[in-house]
């Protein structure tokens, strides 16, 4: 049995992936990273967990490509279930806005409705709102010039609503609420391709109660990004590839990490190769260029504004110290920053570094548990997305990036497979969500 396994693609892929990860980690160590021994231990743990995700993913990957993408017949569902998901997500959005307002009032931080609205202009929201009102600037204050790093998909929608309602913050809150509600319907339909109604609803619950879900209500791009990515995969899986890839292109015009959608699309393409004609296969291949075109449109905006299609990368590096890095380096420096901040500004440790560390590790743990049974294209999507998003140097927004990646809440839901586990995970998640919301309300460097 062992000899036969050593001759399988699963063995060689697992070995190659593990060896590649080990080489990357060795090169990182050889570079002499400026981190403490505890930071190095955090990096090693991150690499080990990522290796576990990959090793458990490989058999599912090979089975997915050998057996095709067909799924079993799923049970029935209540009438208007997708509409119910829309209402559920919209109600959650309104609840978040009310909780934030009540907390701000109770703590004496705001006293009028105008002040409550202005709270939502904080963090990255102000950049999106500035762009919605005034577009990008080609000259002037550097704080406005660097806003070119924020992609235009979301601000364009906000601008359209702003022209109607006359208030940029209200427009942003409306766009986020409607996009989040619509994502509930789309995600429900997508999940129902593979699982019963109850499991689909459980996943929707975790999208709402994971710590940081309040970002979906904020005037930021998370809700639109979640909607467009989910629509891309759903339409592709239901054989509407051109429409799906158009949604993928719109997602890439909203956030650069949408380029990771190419990975699950390739996985679905290969899995379905035997069930389509050569012409259909070629059409699906060609339609994936629409995802690249969406990001190409953003590069065209860079060119029109600054004369350089890659100007956003310069601003990312110079203003935010953002470069491509290795994902396991992130928890290393974040752990050291958490310890340093605790001695001087403990609010930064509690609001910024600890939530980032929790998400960096928890996402890997839950995905390692789920990778064997999760649809292989979704796990591949997670791996590509995590490698790029969490690998970014000087990362401050891991919770915000990961809650908008569907495989993450799906993996949590899959881990909550029994009533007891579901109850325990729900209680812990809800408690952490409330604490994180408090940190957000208090402006404890929650990004």
Could you outline the blueprint of secondary structure elements for this entry?
Elements (H helix, E strand, L loop, with lengths): L1 H5 L2 H22 L6 H31 L13 H26 L6 H7 L5 H10 L7 H4 L7 H13 L2 H24 L5 H13 L12 H16 L3 H12 L9 H10 L6 H10 L1 H18 L4 H10 L8 H16 L1 H25 L5 H14 L8 H6 L3 H9 L3 H23 L6
Structural features, described:
By secondary structure, the protein is mainly α. It contains 22 helices and no strands. Helix 2 runs antiparallel to helix 3, helix 9 runs antiparallel to helix 10 and helix 11 packs antiparallel against helix 12. The longest helix has 31 residues. It starts with a helix and ends in a 6-residue tail after the last helix. The mean pLDDT is 95.
Give the helix/strand class.
mainly alpha
| Radius of gyration over all CA atoms, rounded | 22 Å
Number of strands: 0
Q: Report mean pLDDT, rounded to a whole number.
A: 95
Q: Termini distance?
A: 50 Å
State the helical fraction. over 70%
Contiguous helical run count: 22
Proportion of β residues? under 5%
**Spatial shape:** globular
pLDDT < 50 runs, ≥5 residues: none
H-E string? HHHHHHHHHHHHHHHHHHHHHH
Characterize the biggest β-sheet: none
List keywords for this structure.
447 residues, mainly alpha, 22 helices
Short description:
Helices cover 72% and strands 0% of the residues. The chain is mainly alpha-helical and 447 residues long.
């Amino acid at each position: 049995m062992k000899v036969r396994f050593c001759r399988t693609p699963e063995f060689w892929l697992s070995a190659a992936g593990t060896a590649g990860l080990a080489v990357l980690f060795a090169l990182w160590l050889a570079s002499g990273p400026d981190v403490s021994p505890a930071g190095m231990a955090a990096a090693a743990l991150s690499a080990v967990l990522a290796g576990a995700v990959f090793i458990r993913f490989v058999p599912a990957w090979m089975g997915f490509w050998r057996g095709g993408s067909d799924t079993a017949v799923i049970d029935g569902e209540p009438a208007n279930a997708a509409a119910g998901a829309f209402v559920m997500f919209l109600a959650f959005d309104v609840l978040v806005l009310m909780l934030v307002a009540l907390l701000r009032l109770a703590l004496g931080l705001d006293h009028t409705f105008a002040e409550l609205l202005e709270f939502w202009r904080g963090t990255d929201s102000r950049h999106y709102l500035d762009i919605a009102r005034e577009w990008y600037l080609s000259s002037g204050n550097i704080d406005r010039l660097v806003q070119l790093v924020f992609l235009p998909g979301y601000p364009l929608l906000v601008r359209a609503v702003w022209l109607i309602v006359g208030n940029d913050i209200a427009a942003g809150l409306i766009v986020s609420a409607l996009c989040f509600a619509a994502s509930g319907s789309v995600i429900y339909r997508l999940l129902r391709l593979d699982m019963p109604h109850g499991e689909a609803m459980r996943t929707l619950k975790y999208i709402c109660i994971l710590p940081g879900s309040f970002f979906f209500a904020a005037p930021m791009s998370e809700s639109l990004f979640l909607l467009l990515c989910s629509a891309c995969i759903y339409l592709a899986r239901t054989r509407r590839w051109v429409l799906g890839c158009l949604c993928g292109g719109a997602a890439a015009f909203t956030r650069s990490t949408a380029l990771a959608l190419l990975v699950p699309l390739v996985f679905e393409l290969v899995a379905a190769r035997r069930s389509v004609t050569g012409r259909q296969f070629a059409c699906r291949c060609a339609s994936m260029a629409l995802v690249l075109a969406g990001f190409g449109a953003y590069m065209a905006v860079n060119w029109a504004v600054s004369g350089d299609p890659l100007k956003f990368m310069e601003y990312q590096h110079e203003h935010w110290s953002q470069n491509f890095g290795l994902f396991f380096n992130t928890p290393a420096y974040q752990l050291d920053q958490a310890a340093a901040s605790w001695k001087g500004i403990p609010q930064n440790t509690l609001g910024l570094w600890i939530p980032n560390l929790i998400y960096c590790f928890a996402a890997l743990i839950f995905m390692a548990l789920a990778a064997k049974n999760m649809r292989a294209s979704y796990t591949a999507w997670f791996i590509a997305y995590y490698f790029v998003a969490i690998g970014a140097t000087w990362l401050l927004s891991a919770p915000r990036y990961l809650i908008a990646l569907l495989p993450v809440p799906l993996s949590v839901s899959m881990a909550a497979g029994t009533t007891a586990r579901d109850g325990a995970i729900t209680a812990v998640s809800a408690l952490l969500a409330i604490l994180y919301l408090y940190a957000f309300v208090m402006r404890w460097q929650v990004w």
